[in-house]
Amino acid sequence: MLSDAPARPTTDPVARPPVISRRPTRRRIPVWPYLLVLPTVVGTVLLLLYPVVRSVVISLQHFRLAELVRGGATWVGLDNYREVLTSPELWSVLRRTLLWTVVNVVLIMVLSTLVALLLVRLGSRMRLAVMSALVLVWAVPVLAATTVFQWMFQSRLGVVNWFLTSLGLEQFDGYTWFADGTATFVILVVLVVWQSVPFAALTLYAGLTTIPGELFESARIDGANALQIFRVVTFPLLRPLFGLITSLEIIWVFKCFAQIWAVSQGGPEGATTTLPVYAFQVAQSLHKYDLGAVISTLTVLLLLVVLVPHLRHLYRTEAVAS
Amino acid sequence: MRARALRQVPVNLAATVVLVASVFPVYWMVSTAFKPTTDIQADTPQLLPLHPTVQHFRDAVAVDGFWLFWRNSALVSVGAVLLALVVGLMAAFAVARLQWRGRQGFVLMVFVAQMAPWEALLIPMFIIARDTGTLDTLSLLTAIYFVSTLPFTIVTLRGFLAAVPAELEEAAQLDGASRLQAFRRVVLPLLAPGLMSTSLFGFITAWNEFAFANALIIKNQDNRTLPVWLSSFGNVFGTDWGATMAASTLFMLPVLAVFLVLQRRVTTGIVAGAVKG
Hints:
The complex is a heterodimer of chains A (322) and B (277). Chain A is mainly alpha-helical. Chain A is 70% helix and 1% strand. Chain A has a domain at 88-312: MetI-like (MetI-like fold). Chain B has 277 residues and is mainly alpha-helical. Chain B has helices spanning 2-34, 37-40, 55-62, 66-97, 103-114, 122-132, 138-163, 166-174, 179-208, 211-216, 226-231, 233-237, 241-276.
């Protein structure tokens, strides 16, 4: 998916109305189905399949600014892969990307589980208020969020520094967050977690409401505490949903580009350069399109580790349904 | 009863924390936009806009090109949504109602396309755009947004179509309607909630999209969209945070409006669809 704003949970595959196959009794029309799907196939081939193939092709060529302007790229085999994979920079970017993904996904999953469990316990009015707030956050465009976070963390007039200073943390008086690598990384994590929790929390809450209350009741009668109930009742029942949301969040966080580029462009001094940002830098700023294509291809290969099980699951559900 | 109320206290406290943490950035954006510059630059930030003004909105709108970028964003978003609806409806119909060889393969293709990591295609897309002379054009952006929202459109519409009994169409055809008429008069009205939710998703995706708009509109700056323009607010507004926040608010408004207008119909539609299915 292109967007970080995911589908509403109600339209998610999990909650979709069940698909019932109907075998039409009318006579077969052999051409119609193919005409109907033709535009979809053409669009997907031209704008998705062709760019993927082109990316692999470029990664096997010598393709720099001269080739971009004049054409005539020559084949170099796996030389570009060798160059990228032996550069220490790639490995430090890779480590950072893994750290970025793990920190974000763990925070998103823990916080949204807590929020979902909280929603179940709330009175109806408070629950409506919290859910509306979550939907509001969800609706905030990525770029509006990045500008307001830059404003809140502004050094002299930012509300965050004022707040921290008035708590007695004098070192934050005029602190320049965006000059420091770790601080910028932290802000980006806060931003991405803030934007991602609504989808995960609302979907998990929708899943929680499907668990019959008697299960919790009997666990409580048996003397289980809240943590035990979660471990023994809630989590096992919602395991598929947890799995689905976790893999979606891994994919979204791993390939996250807009937030990082808009806030820091991967800086300062590369402290927020993750794999997708690195690919774009190498290609657009250094005009090494071939090496950029290699990094993009590696990104896709790494994503496949998460994508393939997810797709297999989707397809198996599909096969059962139809 | 009292013990219960007491137990609710920490729960409500936690809910308040979640509420404030969620809403505060949005609130801070909107309230900054309404504060006069002297209040924005005060040493102690004011939590409420005590002297509300719309001056920042005037400034933001008056910036060279604001309406142009607004129009560009609206054009690509609406164009992509309309294309995705028409093309997606055709494909969803073929998948949900017709039997044909290759159907399973097509469904698999749609699933794969839905999970495609588009951010990894910036570089080949830039080179293809250069080669075909479509760099700096809005039509290329529209096409990309159309194809990227198409899989979700097909999957969702197929679910809704499957929930509409085929007998309804057949009955209309027995009454003398053509297949197309039966579809238009009987099925299409029942699909309204599905069309709503897919257009909501498509519109938001296209309106927000930054990576491709940033990489593919380079020389012809008049064809930039709002997200790219907003990302360069430092060049546009300097340190005028009031105007920056006003511009962000104006950028957010259409998404909120679409959300609010479609929200209820989408929810009722899904409930109805679930009951029918």
